[in-house]
Design a protein that fits this description.
Low-confidence stretches: 1-11
Number of strands: 22
Radius of gyration: 21 Å
CATH architecture of the largest domain: Alpha-Beta Complex
CATH class of the largest domain: Alpha Beta
Shape: globular
Mean pLDDT: 94
CATH superfamily of the largest domain: Oxidoreductase, molybdopterin-binding domain
Length: 360
């Protein structure tokens, strides 16, 4: 049920609704960009409804619909299948929403809705092949056990993918994160991992997979996660992650405003960059608010879907500086300097700006 208008005022004040969401869903501290793999407790979380209570001894994954051989698998049976691991950067589609004006009413992310983890599980494609997808199949629907009401619609959280996308070899039914069993908040016992796509696609607490012959029109697919300019605008669906680069905040912060302070002298600026379209091939850094840019050095790739470390030397001179970084991927996509507004506050990958005061 809608409790406030779709758009918030441009005021910096946040509503109690946004505060309630922020207490349930936590972000990633940007100083943790130093880790190649994000420790589980530092990985961002967005939980739409409640965390389901799941008994792993009775849980089963059902695969059915437009298939020749429906499957029903226990957790042990799933774990007995061939396993693989993939390093994958996850980012919420609403990352950066709180920086838009007017601000859409939802989880008020700034830049911290990210994490880079190693997910382990069994590939999805062989299961779909074993189930014998029918010729009339159009999409594969993934249903979670989390259930609630949004937009006056009661539903389980569900998302679908085109059949060809679902058959990608890197698609994973994951039961481990960073070598440990999935904790409840990350989708125990099994979740979907869709490398390269925004987080809304990675359905948690997976219950069933249904091959369908018509495009899925459920709430989370047809109403949410679309870049709309108005409620009457159907918009475009949110899919792959747009390129983004974030900076490890240098120096020390004040409390509570998190302004940065740094002593003069040689410094190494560093951060991480990623994209769901292609690996990042270039990161540029500016120390004057985007007036001039320099290329940063890039470390080796951490797989096709993990983030990439970058670094650059900077001689910090006294005064106030606005530090920025922007990423370009192998498909030619580059971060914009300003965001494009939409009703849901999605896909805001505008350049990050970090104000630093250099003083002795």
């Amino acid at each position: 049920m809608a409790v406030e208008s779709e758009r918030q005022s441009a005021s910096e004040d946040f509503s109690t609704v946004e505060l309630a969401l922020a207490t349930r869903n936590h972000g990633f501290p940007l100083e943790s960009l130093r880790y190649d793999l994000t420790p589980i407790g530092l990985h961002y979380l967005l939980i739409h409804f409640d965390i389901p209570q799941v008994d792993p001894t009775t849980w089963r994954l059902e695969i059915g619909g437009e298939v020749g051989r429906p499957l029903s698998l226990s957790l042990d049976e799933l774990k007995q299948r061939p396993s693989t691991s993939v390093a994958c950067t996850l980012e919420c589609a609403g990352n950066g929403r709180a920086r838009l004006s007017p601000r859409p009413l939802s989880q008020p992310w700034l830049d911290e809705a990210i994490g880079n983890a190693e997910w382990t599980g069994t590939p999805l494609a062989p299961l779909l092949e074993e189930a014998e997808i029918g010729e009339a199949a159009v999409e594969v629907l993934f249903t979670g056990l989390d259930r609630g009401v949004q937009g006056d619609v009661e539903h389980f959280y569900e998302r679908s993918l085109p059949v060809d996308e679902a058959r990608r070899p890197e698609m994973l039914l994951a039961y481990e994160i960073n070598g440990q069993p999935l904790p409840p908040q990350h989708g125990f016992p099994v979740r979907l991992i869709v490398p390269g796509w925004y987080g809304m696609t990675h359905v948690k607490w997976l219950d069933r997979i249904t091959v369908v012959t018509e495009p899925f029109e459920g709430f989370q697919q047809a109403k949410q996660y679309r870049t709309k300019q108005s409620e009457d605008d159907p918009g475009e669906p949110v899919t792959r992650i747009q390129p983004r680069s974030l900076l490890v905040p240098p120096g020390i912060p004040d409390f509570p405003e998190r302004r940065r302070f740094l002593e003069p002298g040689p410094r190494l600026l560093e951060g991480r960059a990623w994209s769901g379209w292609a690996p990042v091939t270039r990161v540029e850094v500016s120390v004057d608010g985007g007036e001039t840019w320099q290329d940063a050095d890039l470390d080796e790739l951490t797989g096709d879907y993990g983030w990439r470390r970058w670094s650059i030397a900077w001689n910090a001179e006294p005064g106030e500086h606005v530090l920025c970084s922007r990423a370009t991927d192998g498909a030619g996509n580059t971060q914009p300097e300003e965001p494009e507004w939409n009703t849901g506050g999605y896909v805001n990958n505008a350049v990050q700006r970090v104000v630093v005061t250099v003083q002795r």
